[in-house]
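REQUEST FORM: STRUCTURE PREDICTION
Request ID: SP-0412
Submitted by: Lab K.M.
Chain count: 1
Length (residues): 209
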Amino acid sequence: MSFTQNKETKEAEEALVREFQAGNLDAYDKIAEIYQKKIYALSFNLTRNQMDAQDVTQEVLLTLFKKAHTFQGKSAFSSWVYRITLNASYMKLRSKKKEPNVSLEDLLPSYNSSGYQQDKIQDWSENTESFLFANETREVIQKAVDQLPEKEKVVFILRDGEGLSTEKVSDILELTIPAVKSRLHRARLFLRKKLSPYFEEYGSRREKK
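STATUS: Completed
RESULT:
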């Protein structure tokens, strides 16, 4: 589920925020109804645990209730909710013992002294739609995404997972657009190399059928 909004929806939600800031509790109920599933989806993508995602969702909704008066409209309300959800999800992850991520440098393509890429990596990224219908494939992709370092992972989830624009991700994470593009590029290279052996085998199995 995506946070992508049209102009009318954005204006309607900001009107609800102003009503709640003025003391209208019904407006908060509507805000919670709009964002509850979206908050859960994003937190689950980060924590990969239903109970953790539920905890984060409740925490974020409580934060919105307590701190909505601090929202000043300098960015979109959805971007503000995103930041709170990301922070709460990271706090949840840090409170638990978690296996260290694989080094991004270890899985990025290597180059020789002449500047040519040494690894021959199949570019499966343009054909993922046909693969995504398989549960096995989704699980393999998710495990690879889970291994991304935090900075690259969040950009990948927001940009490719949630389908947000580069500009929106830039606003949410308060990064420059070039920085977002750089992290996304590195994440895609990481996943391409990590997943290429699986897709090569997957393709071979399909050809034999």
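NOTES: The longest helix spans residues 177-208.
Reviewed by: T.R.
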